[in-house]
Amino acid sequence: MGRNRATLADVARLAGLSKTAASMVLNGREGTRLSAEAHQRVFAAAEELGYRPNMAARSLRTRKTATIAFVSDIVATTRFAGDLIRGALDAARERDHVLLITETQGDAAFERYAIEAMLDRQVDGVVYAAMATRRLTVPPAILGGPVVLLNAVSPDELPCVLPDDEQAAVAVTEALLAHGHRDRIALIGRNRLKEGDPEVSIAAPARLRGIRAALAAADVGLLAECFCAEWLPEHGYAAMRTLLSRSPRPTAVVCMNDRLAFGAYQALGEAGLAIPDDISVVSFDDDPIAAWLRPGLTTAALPHERMGRRAVELVLDGGAAGPSYVPMPLRRRRSVAAPAADVPAPRRPPA
């Protein structure tokens, strides 16, 4: 037989106070008019007895369960998921809340079941997360309480937390411009589906807008744009080989994500070209492998931990409809340098 669970009355008795006074101290309620020493007696008694509050009774009294649902499509099995969930867990823990996490794997029937199960537990709010930054349809069942979208938007104009891809693209492009790259900047990763369908991606068009805005501000145009069916290393490899076959070849390349950049690195190495001496490379996401490449890849980091934290904060504090953008810090590594002095710039045709 285990020990009987300590009660609030036990704590009050050991602290030499009334049950009401002990309750007010443990719940952080102001106006108890108790001395600091009395507060310490209550906390010491609770620790000695191993007292834990009866959350079921408290939820009946406050109509709050101190739980938040975290519902995702396949975010929990992606390489960036740890940071998203860690940020959400930390923010919930700091506010004395528990996070209930479920992953739907895109199965609509299971999603309905999982959401109903969480709502049956009377969660205080829902974080609805997506793997890819995109527009999605929110299940009507969760619209009755606080809902915040994480890494997604919806037609419902709910509060949402997004990475600031457009400003990140400006920063990535300006990193090349600051090193003197102008007329020979190429882009790897154009993708009509990602750029044209918000249910596939809203990151792709945002990154493209930022790149073009930074170039236009510097009165610079792209040397070439390579389309890629997917943003995977093999497509970055093929695109880089295509760029190397043209004349003049680029002095710098912007890749739309790190996996494309990994393929570009491979193609440049096979061609006997050095990064950044021959060609500079910049990218997005800050995949864990980016820092281990040689040279390390300059890339804009997806701020997933801060995004997860922000989503929980908005659930608990309330948030205005529309996006809350989280900056993507630029990880400056050694993949960028000034263009080689012995490579002549292409001549512009006369106006």
Automatic annotation (TrEMBL):
PROSITE patterns reported in the protein's UniProt record: HTH_LACI_2 (PS50932)
UniProt keyword annotation of Transcription present: yes
Keywords: DNA-binding, Repressor, Transcription, Transcription regulation
CDD domains documented for this protein: HTH_LacI (cd01392), PBP1_sucrose_transcription_regulator (cd06288)
A matching Pfam family: Peripla_BP_3
Key word rRNA-binding present: no
Sample GO molecular function, one term: transcription cis-regulatory region binding
Top-level lineage group: Bacteria
Domain HTH lacI-type: 6-62
SMART domains in the cross-refs: HTH_LACI
PANTHER family: HTH-TYPE TRANSCRIPTIONAL REPRESSOR PURR-RELATED (PTHR30146:SF148), LACI-RELATED TRANSCRIPTIONAL REPRESSOR (PTHR30146)
Protein name: Transcriptional regulator
